Amino acid sequence: MMSVVIVLFAVLNTYRTEELSDNIFKDDKLKNSDGSCGCSSIKRNTEENFESTKIFDTSSKNIVAEKYSSAANIQSVYPRTNKMVFIKGGKFNMGTDEPVFIADGEGPSREVTLSDYHLDSYEVSNAEFELFVNATGYTTEAESFGDSFVFESLLSEQTKSGITQAVAAAPWWLPVKGCNWKHPEGPDSNITERMDHPVVHISWNDAVAYCKWAGKRLPTEAEWEYACRGGLKDRLFPWGNKLNPMDKHWYVLKLNIIATFFISQKYSIHTCINKKEFIFRANIWQGEFPETNTGEDGYIGTAPVTEFPTNAFSLHNMVGNVWEWTADWWNIKHTRTPTVNPTGPQSGKDRVKKGGSYLCHKSYCYRYRCAARSQNTPDSSAGNLGFRCAATLLPEYLKEHTYDKN
Ligand SMILES: *[C@@H]1O[C@H](CO)[C@@H](O)[C@H](O)[C@H]1NC(C)=O
Ligand SMILES: *[C@@H]1O[C@H](CO)[C@@H](O)[C@H](O)[C@H]1NC(C)=O
Ligand SMILES: [Ca+2]
Ligand SMILES: [Ca+2]
């Protein structure tokens, strides 16, 4: 009896190793030296330097959440996904001494101390953004400019046939007329079936306006990265170093399989092992980029903001799904000098975005790591770029809704 159990364990473990040996990422060598996904080449043609905008003051506790709370605390016809989690401040190592993309300013690793803050548990969804638009009549920049960038293979043939220009550095990104958050793949697309997906085609300026309305603000890059790391030190991903580790559920499952096996003798182990939800931790790209996205994790495009397991801080989709804007100006030069509540450079041209998206693949744009970063001008938007908000003090209207204290 005992030996049967041991053999079964061995079989299961072999299966597990094969399943997890990064076989979806056969190409371990980066295809091009900067690993560019073209994510930062898709920007509007703006030459001027932007003035430093002080959108919030971390030194002051005087955040005007109350002013907006009545507006943000309205009924939605969809389940709300605006809850925030409390994040206890502390010291952490920001950036990395083993940068994958040196030109992105991922290094060096430096000590950062943060005060307590709150962060949205989810990326801002279409439903939440629609509440904001309904309440304020806000027009996004993609709507004003009349276009936004979409990944080619997501477009219908009809939409594609009307496009004459492409981005030289990233030909798979196409500027699509009439494309905006309500029409993510152009005029012939809509979001009716995707109200719980992250809102996309949102510029940095749009994100700031939304967060302000909700009594929140954008997180600083340091706050975003601290939250991404979820208390782990020098790890690649929000859950550790392996792309798809089996979590605790797996061991519980494995014991269940064995128990059930001996009870029924008929149990289908194979079906159970193949359950993807025990394997995938983030919505990224599987297959050859940019030709084939197999969507093994369940999603070719965006996934609902509630999908995939949380990290230790109860945050969903910190890496993958959509890129997230942060408050900071972009700069690639960092020193090792320890800092307290850093807010980035005083001025700049681009804003920092973090976390990578459903288009990220290890061989190309290996940026679904906590230390990875990229940039865009504040008026740029794309089909894989969204955001979540932070708050120094929890807005009054969210107090009764908040849980997951950590
Ligand atoms: C926004 O307003 C429209 C029109 O009244 C309504 O159909 C829609 O459900 C509202 N959105 C939300 C999220 O409540
Ligand atoms: C929205 O798109 C779906 C396909 O995703 C389509 O079936 C539906 O008719 C569209 N709705 C509207 C109002 O255009
Ligand atoms: Ca995917
Ligand atoms: Ca994300």
TrEMBL record:
Pfam assignment, any one: FGE-sulfatase
Cleavable signal peptide: 1-17
Start and end residues of each Sulfatase-modifying factor enzyme-like domain: 81-390
InterPro entries reported for this sequence: CTDL_fold, Sulfatase_Mod_Factor_Kinase, SUMF_dom, SUMF_sf
Alphabetical UniProt keywords: Signal
Family according to the record: Belongs to the sulfatase-modifying factor family.
Protein name (database record): Sulfatase-modifying factor enzyme-like domain-containing protein
